[in-house]
Design goal:
The chain is 16% helix and 49% strand. It is of the alpha+beta class. It has a six-stranded antiparallel barrel with strand order 1-2-3-6-5-4. The protein has a two-stranded antiparallel sheet with strand order 7-8. The radius of gyration is 15 Å and the shape is globular.
Length: 140
């Protein structure tokens, strides 16, 4: 059984870009857009890039072993949607080419420990009317 709902999986599979948040040894935050894929076999988020291994995001993610990752967009006229994944992260030497054939083979794999979504599991997203349903849960 997946940690994600079927609607969250469908949404993640429809997107190509997310934002990875890390923190350095001084506590400074760093957020960058990254290519990713939902890995159904592992029920994880796999993150790749052209030169991922020497990058700041790669070093910081592995230094702390925890990251936050967000996939989001906005449907017209103003319907924001997102899935936020907080979790542990590990490096793997293969999987990047499955995200994009031009990426390096290395990936960061995020295993969810906490998931939040909005506008995915239902369509109650009406900020002007103060009606927004968030779905949040701790997962193992």
């Amino acid at each position: 059984m997946s940690r994600f709902t079927p609607a969250e999986i469908e949404y993640m599979q429809s997107q190509r870009l997310g934002r990875l948040a890390t923190v350095n040894e001084k506590g400074d935050l760093h957020v960058v857009p990254v290519g990713f894929r939902y890995n159904a076999d592992q029920d994880t988020i796999d993150i790749g890039g052209h030169y991922i291994v020497p990058s700041k995001k790669y070093r910081e993610a592995l230094r702390h072993g925890r990251v936050a990752f967000v996939i989001d967009d906005v449907l017209p006229p103003w319907k924001p949607r997102f899935v936020e994944v907080r979790g542990t992260v590990q490096a793997f030497p293969e999987g990047g080419k499955e995200i994009n054939p031009n990426f390096a083979p290395d990936i960061l794999r995020v295993t969810p420990t906490y998931i939040v979504s909005m506008g995915i599991n239902d369509d109650v997203v009406q900020p002007s009317q103060q009606r927004v349903n968030y779905y949040s849960r701790k997962v193992e």
